[in-house]
Amino acid sequence: MPHSERRYSVLSVAYPLLPVHSGSAGGAEQILSLVDRGVTEAGHDSLVIAAAGSRIVGTLIQTQTFEGQITEEMLARAREEHRDFIERTLRETRVDLIHLHGLDFYEYMPSTSVPKVATLHLPIAWYPDHIFEIPGLELVCVSDAQATTLPERQRATTVRNGIDVAAFGGGCERGDFLLYLGRICPEKGADIALRIAHQLARRLVLAGPVHPFEYHQNYFREKVAPLLDDERRYVGATGLLEKRKLLAQTQCLLIPSLVDETSSLVAMEAMASGTPVIAFRRGALPEVVEHERTGFLVENEGEMADAVEKTATISAAVCRETALRRFDFRRMVDDYLGLYERVLGGWLKRPASQAPAVVSK
């Protein structure tokens, strides 16, 4: 759709403790990276407040890195620093719109007349009720399934997530191993993938970060590590190149998530690689995976194990075509630009001489 030719500046604010780049493990960080790229390519100014180690296309306002196990004290310090960086940026730089991406965005959201948008990347139940009553805050859901769980009478714009489909593809010889790719934490069900691999006597590659939260580390030590062996390997967090290779070579991707996923970037990436997905029928996964066409939607561990033997019926070409048609990030960016311009509203219609100044790079 056509957008305003008036140039404006967007300040995107990431979760305080995780860096933002195209190979980030977190979905929110990946989406922010793509939005930054899209805003810049559209000719606008993109500023991003994010942790050290971030790599973006626009202007990075880098916060410090916090090392070691994440504690409430560390998180409080990181949030305070985020507040300081946001306030300083608003004082020193012209910002036309603020886009918040962190789960805890309300902890450092500034009191300002600058229009604000917050994308709810995680299940609605994980956010405190008061965020739905913040005046002037435009909320964004990332799937229809997520939007149906909003509090009664609460409205939000839905902007479906996307990926850089062109960054993924086949071309590799398909292997016979199963793949789990994602955070290693209780709600993602990595132990379920391991049990299935043992049951079927199949090789499994388990890839993804164990974040320095105590309950994540306890889960890995108590539930995951005992199931690892020479055939079921944990390879740690992967960079983008390694992720592409794994997705292109695996027989199928397993998503045994125990929560109602708001979206699934890794399912989209698998399809872009021509790889079938087997996922629990939860949350937005039925919006991403087309049952018996690009993968299988199952109800339990037993059905997931059974579906592994059916993946030869899924066409790699169909998976790839579906990803190209439905999940390209440019559609998502186009939707966000439309939202920004609706939220900015009035000043975009004013003469250029009266419009706010833009950021100098």
Give the structure's gist in a few sentences.
The chain has helices at residues 27-41, 72-92, 144-147, 190-200, 214-224, 240-249, 265-272, 285-288, 301-308, 316-326, 329-344, and strands at residues 9-13, 45-51, 59-63, 97-100, 116-119, 137-141, 157-158, 178-181, 204-207, 232-236, 252-255, 277-280, 295-298.
If you had to describe this structure to a student in words, what would you say it looks like?
The radius of gyration is 21 Å and the shape is globular. It is an alpha/beta fold and 361 residues long. Helix 1 crosses helix 11. It is 33% helix and 16% strand. The chain is built from 11 helices and 13 strands. Helix 4 (190-200) links the parallel strand 8 and strand 9. The model is unreliable at 352-361 (pLDDT under 50). The strands form 2 sheets. It has a 7-stranded parallel sheet, with helices on both faces.
